[in-house]
Amino acid sequence: MKTESPRRLLRNPSLLILILLAAAAPVAEIAMAAEPEQTPAAQEAAVHIVYVDRPEGADAEEFHIRTLAPILGSEEKAKDAVLYHYKHAASGFSAKLTPAQVEDLKKQPCVLQVTPSQTYQLHGSEGGHAGATRTMGLM
To answer: What residues does 47 pair with on adjacent strands?
Structure first.
């Protein structure tokens, strides 16, 4: 049985690519094992509404910032993250948070609930037009 010289094997582009891929596969597996798998969707921030049990007499906005600051790392980051402060009918705030931040925030003793923000649009058949948007409220 005749064996081919290594030089002749390397002249074949298909064989060369196959050898390179075989050599690179273990390196890629090691690199992937070293880094935890993170999907972009898992770390993507979304707007959440955070309901808190604010102590009587405490300033709402200051309390909200102090509640969020340990999760985000600073009061400045917390101020930047808060989109709105709820102060009257309920005490809380809305902020753009990652799933990990939501889980950490839920562990805070003053946090009652953290829910994803949702927008609802009311549709009806006003005036006989199916799917027409109906405005509700004071106009």
So the answer is: 96
30 φψ region: left (φ > 0), alpha (ψ -120 to 50), beta (else): alpha
Beta-carbon contacts of 13 under 8 Å, excluding residues fewer than 6 positions away, are none
Long-range Cβ contacts of 99-107 (<8 Å, 24+ apart)? 99/42, 99/43, 100/43, 101/45, 101/71, 101/72, 102/48, 104/71, 105/50, 105/67, 105/68, 105/71
Q: pTM for the full model?
A: 0.57
Predicted confidence band of residue 124 (pLDDT cuts 50, 70, 90): low
User: What is the enclosing helix (H) or strand (E) of 95?
Assistant: strand 92-97
Q: Which amino acid is at 122?
A: L
CA separation (Å) from 23 to 5, 16, 18, 26, 38? 20, 11, 9, 7, 26
Is the distance from CB of 118 to CB of 102 less than 8 angstroms?
no
- The predicted-structure confidence for 43-86, as pLDDT tens digits, reads as follows 789 999 999 999 999 999 999 999 999 999 999 999 999 999 99
